[in-house]
Amino acid sequence: MEFLNPPLFLFLCFLLSSSYPLCSATPHLSVSNEAAIDYQGFLNWAREDELFEWIKRVRRHIHMNPELAFNEYKTSKFIREELDEMGIEYSWPYAKTGIVATIGSGGRPILALRADMDALPIQELVDWEYKSRLDGKMHACGHDAHVTMVLGAAKLLQKAKDQLKGTVKLVFQPAEEGGAGAYHMIQEGAIENIEAIFGLHVDNQLRTGAIASKPGPLLAASGRFVAIIQGQGGHAVKPHKAIDPVLAASHAILSLQQLVSRETDPVDSSVVSVTFISAAHGHAIIPDKVTFGGTLRSMTSEGLSNLARRIKEVIEAQSVVHRCSASIDFMEKIGRPYPETLNDDGMYMHVKRVGESLLGEHNVHLSPPVMGAEDFGFYSQIIPSAMFWLGIRNVSVGSYHSLHSPHFFLDENALPIGAALHAAVAVAYLESQASRFH
């Protein structure tokens, strides 16, 4: 058996014996107003040279070997090898490449820490020693960091496994980038018996050392659509002999803009953006058809459903007015719509207080809602959940480019912070909930 070094062992004994009440009331968690515990020991350990060097090696290996949605086979294998090295049990595969690892007693309470594994189809343009080795693939959304931080938390938690008052599940999921990997993990039973879940996402707008989030809706529900307007082609000098789908598509696209400006309550956040349009290429040709599409967003699933209904009605009606026909595909067979990501009030307060104790109150911020989408929302529809932003902005090392940019670069000093926060959130949750089951 591997023992803790004495300072850390004493710290964890203090941590696990301290009072930090968090009472559960289905479906939400409620948090007491008691002051947070000092979690600096976790962070100090994560920043020690040996562990920090390991954390960086893990992240760099994953970064150099990016894999796209549902094809994270080598990444999954690498994670399993690291878990084997730590002596952590796991089950797999879920949703082709997903893994669920277990630390602790195996009994309740049970909290999950989530990391997404997939990369993006982007050519990395950052010239550094550990850049992507695969053309056209890049970890440009920080998922390599997400996996690394949860593995780092695993190292911290495994050292204290015999003192944990419950169970921590590590959920490594595929296909966050449009593939709804979380949905498929849920369908295959990956989060059965899990009572709450926590996740971090890196944020290039937030400086390294800070975190941010908000209670309630954090990220939007999202969907995609493609419309085809069918007319009858002809020569441009004889428009009366044709049925022009370009005119119908133009009116439809302009009318779609009114769904937000004239049909949505100004205090509600919604987006309808047409992002592409294509037809035949020719200066003297009226095409047979026009294809266009884009994205729709709302801070509620109900709002998203209403937008989808009205998008279909508007495109079909404008097509009829211009003597055309239309078909609209919301692409649900290849890209399931994402629900909004809802932070449970109790889980949000729990993470906020742990974060304040770990990083200081001045480093924990209130985030505005964001119209981006995350498949973490699928978890949040089922169990109490919290997602927080982890700051990585550090201009001095080039860590400021936006997510999904080929120039995206990550300040690795954020990695031990994320690892320590995951671990501290988990330990405090188990401690606070243990009295319900023992």
Describe the fold and architecture.
With about 450 residues, the protein is of the alpha+beta class. It has two domains: about 300 residues, 3-Layer(aba) Sandwich (Aminopeptidase); about 110 residues, Alpha-Beta Plaits, CATH 3.30.70. Helices cover about 35% and strands about 25% of the residues. The strands form five sheets. The protein has an eight-stranded mixed beta sheet, with helices on both faces. Strands 12-14-10-15 form a four-stranded antiparallel beta sheet, covered by helices on one side. The longest helix is centred in the last third of the chain and has 21 residues. The protein is elongated. The N terminus is likely disordered. InterPro entries: Amidohydrolase, Bact_exopeptidase_dim_dom, ILR1-like_Hyd, Peptidase_M20, Peptidase_M20_dimer. Pfam families: M20_dimer, Peptidase_M20. This is Peptidase M20 dimerisation domain-containing protein. Its cofactor is Mn(2+). Belongs to the peptidase M20 family.
